[in-house]
């Protein structure tokens, strides 16, 4: 939440340009939903935090702008993916690591396994939020079903993230005022420790897989020689 909070604190929105702020929220989220890796969720959180601190922005309109951006952007992405097909992702993969081949394959598996539910719940996952529209179009998902899941997911995501960020911002002084420096240090230490453990386990697993791959051909050759 640190980055959105800093963004919110750095922005002062006069009442005369509040509409522009709503447009920015909708535009960033819309472009992200079309398949461009932009910080859509960060923008929504920043706007919600800002609405909780100032009276120029209304949280209802922030949520509305985010939902419309998500729905319209996903729909545009759907038709782009439907027309361009898989070559769209191949081109994007050369420019953005977000569209690497393994991520595309994983996203396709989700779509084949869960169908429209991938569109709905994908709104809450960073990568699927970018993939959902173009991927659904590429796979030629039935558009009315896609639109229903897209609209439901966009509204649910915008309302959930927006309201939570708004409530946190509205009570930021109370929340952070009760957190001591010692507690923050303790949380940081635990977080670092968990990260180190995760990396060590990952390296051990990769080493074991590499060793297994290396020894398998040798074992097969030895067995053949015995025969």
Automatic annotation (TrEMBL):
Q: Where in the cell is it found?
A: Cell membrane
Q: Which residues form the VTT domain?
A: 38-160
Q: Where is the composition biased (Low complexity)?
A: 210-227
Keyword field: Cell membrane, Membrane, Transmembrane, Transmembrane helix
Q: Where in this protein does the record put region Disordered?
A: 206-227
Q: Where are the transmembrane segments?
A: 6-29, 61-81, 146-169, 175-197
Q: How does it sit in the membrane?
A: Multi-pass membrane protein
Q: Which Pfam families match?
A: VTT_dom
- The reply to whether Calcium figures as a keyword in the UniProt entry is no
Name the family: Belongs to the DedA family.
Protein name as it appears in the record: DedA family protein
Which species does the entry assign this protein to?
Kribbella hippodromi
Q: What is the lineage of its organism?
A: Bacteria, Bacillati, Actinomycetota, Actinomycetes, Propionibacteriales
